[in-house]
Amino acid sequence: MTTMKNIVIFGAPGAGKGTQSDFIVEKFGLTHISTGDLLRKEIKDQTDLGKRIKDIMDAGQLVSDDIVIEMMDNAIARDSKGILFDGFPRTVAQAEVLDKLLAKHGRSLTCMVRLDVPREELIHRMLERAKVSGRSDDNEETIKNRLVEYENKTLPVADYYSKQGKEVKINGLGDIKRISEDIAKAIESL
Ligand code: AMP
User: Fold this and answer.
1) Measured in angstroms, how far is the CA atom of residue 40 from the centroid of ligand 1?
2) Are 172 and 16 in contact (CB under 8 A)?
3) How many angstroms separate the CA atoms of 118 and 102, rounded?
4) Residues with Cβ within 6 A of ligand 1?
5) Long-range interactions of 24-30: CB distance < 8 A, separation 24+
């Protein structure tokens, strides 16, 4: 095993994963891989994959595990710095595969950083973001669907890592800089 860091940033939609991802990759010199960004690019480029996933994403549902797993396999194979996984894994099946993919490439997961933010604040933040993001899935109906998908399918991923002793909980409410500092301290203390 190498000593490079491979980290999952975890949290509900609107928890601040994107913002804190920018900080973490800069601070620890990691490659940022956001499945949401990769999938949105497929749609923008109107690829075959993009055409298949557009309606699913617009409805706020998760795309199939197979699609994201193949994207991750390729991304890990190409990387040499260590990866920050943003928006992945979103199901326990994806988390199990991630462990296997990392092992295949001689790596292991360093930790999962979990940003905890209350539900009302998540909805408030996403509605605010909707005004400027231009994202077709940032509207009230879809936001609710995304939170339901998160609670049903993604939240069990936190248990999966907690059982492995890899869950690092961070209070995601409050000053962005303070949250970044809490994350940095937690990662450095591992
Ligand atoms: P995000 O940018 O992370 O909020 O993701 C936006 C949308 O992309 C989600 O609502 C899903 O439709 C899709 N997506 C992103 N990551 C995943 C994943 N790991 N598994 C399934 N669907 C995903």
Assistant:
1) 9
2) yes
3) 32
4) 13, 35-36, 39, 56-57, 60-63, 68, 87-88, 90, 94, 137, 146
5) 24/84, 24/113, 24/183, 24/184, 24/187, 25/84, 27/180, 27/184, 28/82, 28/84, 28/187, 29/81, 29/82, 30/5, 30/81, 30/82, 30/83, 30/84
All structural domains of the chain, each given as residue ranges with its CATH number in brackets, are 6-185 (3.40.50.300)
Residues 63, 57 contacting (CB under 8 angstroms): yes
167-171, strands of its sheet edge to edge = 31-34, 83-86, 7-10, 111-116, 167-171
Q: What is the pTM of this model?
A: 0.96
- Asked whether the beta carbons of 74 and 19 are under 8 A apart, the reply is no
At 125, list the tokens: 């933040």
Which residue out of 35, 40, 73, 83 has the highest number of ligand 1 atoms within 8 Å of its CB and is therefore the one to mutate? 35
Question: pLDDT digits over 97-127, tens only?
Answer: 999 999 999 999 999 999 999 999 999 999 9
Residue 129 falls in the annotated catalytic set: yes
